[in-house]
Specification:
Layout (H helix, E strand, L loop, with lengths): L26 E2 L1 H10 L4 H15 L4 E5 L2 E5 L5 E7 L3 E6 L11 E2 L6 E6 L6 H12 L7
Length: 145
């Protein structure tokens, strides 16, 4: 397991937790999500920004927050439909009602309804399929957290 990255004394830079996930304070709105994206290491930063842009374009007025060091996306007042999380070799996108999406996202979860998409550095993202999943997921009942 990679060591956690130290934060120099007096630095405002977020610490990277094991796996390279940024440690970002819990908060509602776009600002904490943008802080998370800015702290994503290496290639993940540009991909995170692109995912955020695709989600915003697919779901006008999407509600954003960071909880448990992960950005969450949802419909205002209806819970969360998607989250992001950095791991050493990939970004995990969790669709909380993924089993209801067509086609079903490729990676199973221990949670019956949740399905994952793992985005790796050298594997192109199918943006059209991702957008379709986001649109479908945003129309389903959200997860309360």
């Amino acid at each position: 397991m990679p060591a956690r990255s130290p934060v120099p004394p007096g630095s405002d830079a977020p610490r990277l937790l094991s796996g390279g996930n940024p440690q970002i304070a819990k908060g509602d709105g776009d600002a904490p999500v943008q802080a998370y994206i800015a702290a994503m290491p290496g290639w993940k930063r540009a991909v995170g920004a692109r995912l955020d842009a695709l989600i915003v374009a697919a779901v006008p007025g999407v509600h954003k927050a960071v909880k448990w060091n992960s950005p969450l996306y949802g419909q205002p007042g209806d819970g969360w439909f998607l989250s992001l999380h950095c791991f050493t070799g990939y970004i995990k996108v969790a669709f909380f009602r993924g089993l209801s999406l067509q086609p079903v996202p490729p990676v199973a979860s221990r949670s019956q309804d949740t399905r994952y998409l793992h985005i790796e550095e050298h594997v192109p993202l199918d943006e059209a399929q991702f957008t379709r999943w986001v649109q479908q997921a945003s129309g389903l009942p959200g997860e309360r957290m």
